[in-house]
Amino acid sequence: MDENKMEALFAGVEYDINELKSKEAAVQHVMHEMKSHLVDKFEALVAKQPKKPFLIYDDKIYTYEAIEDMACRVANIARSWGLKTGDCVAIMIQNEPSFVYTFLGLQKLGISVALVNHNLTAHSLIHSVSAVDCKAFIVGSGKDLFEAVTDVLPELGKLPVYIQGVSHQNLPAGMTSFDDLMKDTFPTAFSPSLRSEVTLMDTCCFIYTSGTTGNPKPVYIPHSKTVVLSCIAKVLINHNQDDIMYVVLPLYHSTGMFLGLGAALIAGSCLALRKKFSARHFWADCRKYKVTNIAYIGELLRYLLSQPKSELDGVHNIRAAIGAGLRMDIWNEIKERFKIPRIAEFFGATEGYTGIFGVSERPGALGRLSPLLRRFDPDNKVLVKFDVATATPIRNEKGHCIPVEVGEPGLLISKAPDQLLNKKLYKAPIEETEKKLIRDVFVPGDVYMNYGDSFVLDKEYFVYFHDRLGDTFRWKGENVSTKEVANEIGLLSFIEDASVYGVPIPGHDGKAGMAAITLSPHARLGNKELQELYVHVCKELPFYARPFFLRHIPMQVLTGTFKNKKGDLAKEGYDLDIVKDPLYFIDHENKAYSPLTKVKLVKFMKSKL
């Protein structure tokens, strides 16, 4: 072994020791918490500290016993519907107290809850609700949610739909006021024995991921996993009963759900909720509610950094920020400008069975993947060489995957646990789970999970996020399925095919959508078609999935397996100096896709994206 490899091998041994100690303590904590479900922890906290603030929302404080009162009403309502342990109910509710008490109320009966993205409309909404075979659909308050469900009500068939925030006098046929039911129901408590048959391996909830098949897929989240994920804040930042966690991330996502509600139930702490993220109000809320910890994704902190500097930027009680996706180039700027003592970064996937986290606080680093740590890693996480076009591992002459060298981007894979080999990841055909698995990785018969993201190691084996791969990209904190967008665009009669991919936007994290389209025979792309395309994507796709740019190409380039080849298209993006095909941008002012010019591009980039 040469000197450089020897130096790399032994680099950071002191970090490894700290990592091993912290992970041993984390395992002990998780095993202790694994003795009960989240709803059990909630009920124990109600008995222990009924008057303690549990939620702060819209300047109102909700105690543990107040949420218990509402949750018991929800449980009684669900019981009156004839629902029982093992049934599923879908909820589509924004960040507000009703999300919390509805979720906990259903959990009291051992009912699994499908957490539907409240931005969905049309086909995506119909699919998400239908995919989980739910017995009822509870929709939160708000005009946008009401209209989205009203538009698809005929397609939901005989599924009972209950609306919060509206009385029965203002509802059309086919909908029932949930608020009226709550008023007419007593908060009678249920014995936990009603859910005594529910095990830690049973499904607590479904959280949706975009995946690669064109539609949101409901991921099975067992009770055991909810406890593990809810312990992250305790493990990384010692979130405790005296803390107040500020969450503006949607509770239907695993980050918001488990760094917010889950963390509060593990610690017996208080959760400060805001319905929707506002960069302008963020720090004012933190000061007003005496927030001590904040949950983030990288894009959120980028938006805060883009706000005008203020002498109040560092005036708060925050001691830690915890989340994922904070880029290394702004890490120190965030920490210094906003005076945040501790930033804890981690990586995980909704359907994943492992993650990466560390205790070293190296700017931008998620943790470590050193040779020593891998020896103690039951998941055997490793970065391997991959094909950018297919987001799959490259094999050597023996047919095995190839670990990357230090400094080389690699695809993250980890050993598939036995429980995954005997069940599905998604409430979807088994083929969808199989797509996430890689077989015969290093030896015949071994099975690994493909996380679909690339990372890079430095010479001390600190690991850094590199890029999202394959058929999914992230924009505005949401995962976008390129196939879902392409399928929707392809419904228009004048479009023959579409390749959808993400393109970087200066000053923004993540990637915005772009579609390279080919036209049907004898079709043309005139003003009428460009307006029709704009109306269609605005109606059928959530705001974060609508393509910012269009490229009209004469024909699609396919791979050997007949998949659209998008690597070169993504590299060229919307660069007017390189792309000779017609380019268009989403023009909200004229409600159409309009031809892109350098002048219009500059103006578009300065607009509120």
Summarize the structure.
By secondary structure, this protein is an alpha/beta fold. Helix content is 32%, strand content 24%.
Q: Rounded to an integer, what's the Rg over CA atoms?
A: 24 Å
Number of helices: 21
Task: Give the termini distance in whole angstroms.
Answer: 51 Å
Mean pLDDT: 90
Secondary structure tally: strands: 30
CATH first level of the domain at 63-222: which class? Alpha Beta
User: Which structural class best describes the helix and strand composition?
Assistant: alpha/beta
Would you tell me which CATH topology of the domain at 63-222 applies? Answer: Rossmann fold
**Looking at the structure, what is the overall shape?**
globular
CATH architecture assignment of the domain at 63-222: 3-Layer(aba) Sandwich
Strand content: 15-25%
- Which stretches are poorly predicted, pLDDT < 50 over at least 5 residues? none
Q: Identify the strand order in the major beta sheet.
A: 2-1-11-10-12-13-14-15
Family: Belongs to the ATP-dependent AMP-binding enzyme family.
GO molecular function, one term: long-chain fatty acid transmembrane transporter activity
Pfam family, one: AMP-binding
Catalytic activity: tetracosanoate + ATP + CoA = tetracosanoyl-CoA + AMP + diphosphate; a very long-chain fatty acid + ATP + CoA = a very long-chain fatty acyl-CoA + AMP + diphosphate
